[in-house]
Design brief:
It contains eight helices and six strands; from the N terminus they run H-H-H-H-E-E-H-E-H-E-H-E-E-H. It is of the alpha/beta class. It folds into two domains: 85 residues, no CATH class; 119 residues, Glutaredoxin (3-Layer(aba) Sandwich), CATH 3.40.30.10. Strands 1-6-5-2-3-4 form a six-stranded mixed β-sheet.
């Protein structure tokens, strides 16, 4: 039984590392919170490491206590260390804190929206954010997302329109100076809208899983 448990823990570590992103995405698509989905693979690696460290002395006889503890410590941290090296946790991944907005103007691009994303042409982070927005839309079909590109040239929308594939509303900014002012030169910027006015915003490195959970929790 202990051998089987040890092998299961090894298998759990390997499978979690091999299918790390798929596990996270599958958990999100199953309707669980973004925070849980982000933490789950790391939690599984910590758990499997704990089991491996606990059962190691049952299979390997190490008489010297320092060596035994060292080996257990190695097995304890190894699964998580490999997972973290391959899939690092960045500062904004679990972020929630953005900036509350008060007495903001109701811009044309903010009308009939729940979330406005301000982008600029040629921004790789803006382009990458569209996949996340499509997933938010999939989980919340009624949410109104406006992806607003601050540009005077309609042609600058081409790459964003292709990535959105009709699932996200990509718009040209109707008030470029004002939308750029909201972004404060940090792109993309995510703005929560209520009653056609901006109430809260996050920069790209602030719009982590807890921020998305907050946004989804406050949808009408």
């Amino acid at each position: 039984m202990k051998i089987l448990t040890f092998l299961i823990a090894v298998s759990l570590s390997i499978v979690t590392i091999l299918f790390f992103r798929e596990l996270e995405l599958g958990t999100i698509e199953s309707g669980f919170s973004w925070t849980l989905a982000k933490a789950l693979p790391y939690a599984l690696l910590v758990f499997s490491g704990f089991v491996l460290a606990l059962l190691l002395p049952k299979f390997i006889s190490i008489k010297k206590k320092p060596l035994k503890l060292g080996a257990q410590l190695l097995f304890l941290v190894l699964p998580f260390s490999i997972g973290f090296a391959l899939f690092p946790i960045y500062e904004g991944d679990f972020s929630l804190i953005g900036k509350e907005l008060k007495q903001t103007k109701a811009l044309e691009n903010f009308k009939n929206a729940d979330l406005v994303v301000i982008a600029i042409p040629g921004c790789p982070y803006c382009l990458a954010s569209i996949e996340k927005l499509k997933l938010i839309k999939k989980r919340n079909p009624s949410i109104k997302i406006h992806f607003v590109v601050s540009t005077p040239d309609q042609k600058d929308l081409a790459n964003y329109l292709a990535a959105a594939d009709g699932k996200i509303d990509v718009q040209q900014s109707k008030e470029i100076e004002l939308t750029s002012e909201f972004a404060e030169s940090r792109y993309p910027t995510f703005i929560q809208i209520k009653n056609n006015k901006a109430v809260y915003k996050w920069s790209n490195d602030q719009f982590g899983v807890r921020a998305v959970d907050k946004l989804e929790g406050e949808l009408n």
